[in-house]
Amino acid sequence: MRRITLGLLLTSVLSAGAPDSIACDVCGCSANIQSLGLLPQFSNNFVGLQYLTYHSVSNHPALFEGKPDEHTEQQFRSLQLWGRIRLSQRFQLLAFVPYLHNTNQDTSASITKSGIGDVTLMVNYSVPLKRPSKGERLLLAGLGIKAPTGHYDSLANTGTGLPNVQTGTGSWDMNGNLSYTRRFSRWGYNAEGSFSMTTPNRSRYKFGNKTALALNAFYWKKSGAFTFVPQCGLRVEHALHDYDNYDKKWLNEQTGGVLSFVTAGAQVMLKQAGLRAMAYIPAYQHYATGYVHTRTRWECSVFFLF
Amino acid sequence: MNKQLITLSTIFILCITACQKKDSTAFNPDNLKVSIESPLATQTYKKGDTVFIKAAASYTTEMHGYEISITGKDSTEIWGMDEHVHGSSFSIDTFWVDDQSEAQTLNLALTVEADHDGHQKTENRTFSIQ
User: Fold this and answer.
1) Whether B103 contacts chain A with CB within 8 A
2) What is the distance between the alpha carbons of residues A208 and A176, in angstroms, rounded to a whole number?
3) So which domain of life are we looking at (chain B) (predicted)?
């Protein structure tokens, strides 16, 4: 019974996602940790497709006096196959297989990289909690690993390449998340924290570790065969600086930073199928010493429970 | 149990977002080597000739880029380029086609940017065009 009730409780996880970006020193939005947001029915398996797109603009000050600033625009698109399998009453296995299409456009050239990205596997554990007198609650702790299955050009970190627009980071990274969901009758909230701990790749480039915190409120409404879950909240992401060469401790201080978003979206469920759309609207941001500005992120996903 | 989990997670997050180690080698211009192999100072080019520019730079730590500038009379820039390059050594292999109609002595300046604090070194080479 408890399992069935928990199945109605919305759960949430995060995982490290898309790789990062741009040429030269000022590097795009490597603070991006892809959010899975609120997922339905803890006790069910699901498979789905998720599309995520965002755009960032950078104005890199010229390296030499008298030269114009370098203006760069980057577009990141990711179509991801993802799913969850319930291993036991308390354990779930999640898998993410992204296909990336990234474009870097500067004043002189346009470069596009596309292909399979880095695959992530994550195990979530449902931490036992005392049942509240009213409503439901759920605490999930997850740990995962991201494999370097995407392509990383070994010349990407020489300055002539673009670390962030590669389809892979070239590194084995560890991801984790902690997610607490509390639902009263129709209202509820979810608080979550996640991290991505990176390692240097073969070229000794190391993307900065990333952390994210999010707080979302949601409303749960059933109407006929449909279930609607509108939601809104806040999200803050932080990325440490990248290392151009981790062995030599060549820290690239024009990477990393803070991004914060106001999030809004909705999820609709019909029987075993679900559709979700989310917008991540930038609020405060200070990224790459302030030279990079990210625009609104859009996410749309479909999933099927089984 | 849950308090312990949250405490451990918080400590872990603080650890992975802690200060980052950084190569703090102070700039030493003596260690920044910049050399121009081509063009030679004795070379003279005619209009339409290709001036091959070959050079190299090395340093004890990471460099960030270089700029090449060819100037003529009154230090007017005739041609130039710059590029971001990360590494402790790099070579340059590019060219410029002489499109000048007037005989003069030109100066090729190669400036290497050691860091983002403005530390750089310039190597000059003069050559002639007819």
Assistant:
1) no
2) 15
3) Bacteria
Q: Quick one: pLDDT at residue A37?
A: 64
Both tokens assigned to A247? 């062995």
Partner-chain contact B20 A241, CB within 8 Å? yes
CA distance A150 to A103: 16
Question: B116 and chain A: CB distance < 8 Å anywhere?
Answer: yes
| DSSP reduced 3-state for A28 | coil
Chain A residues lying within 8 Å of B90, measured CB to CB: 158
Instruction: Let me know: does A284 contact A305? Beta carbons within 8 Å.
Output: no
Q: Tell me: pLDDT of A108 over 80.
A: no
pLDDT, one tens digit per residue, over A180-222 is 999 998 999 999 999 999 999 999 999 999 999 999 999 999 9
**Residue carrying the six token digits 């296995």:** A93
- pTM to 2 decimal places: 0.85
Identity of the residue in B16, B86, B111 whose CB atom sits nearest the CB atom of A159: B86
**Inter-chain touch A248–B23, beta carbons under 8 Å:** yes
Please tell me the distance in Å from A31's CA to the nearest CA on chain B: 13
Q: Which fold has domain B31-129?
A: Immunoglobulin-like (2.60.40)
| Predicted ipTM of the assembly | 0.78
Select the more confidently predicted residue: A63 or A286: A286
Taking residue B9's Cβ as centre, other Cβ atoms within 10 Å add up to 16
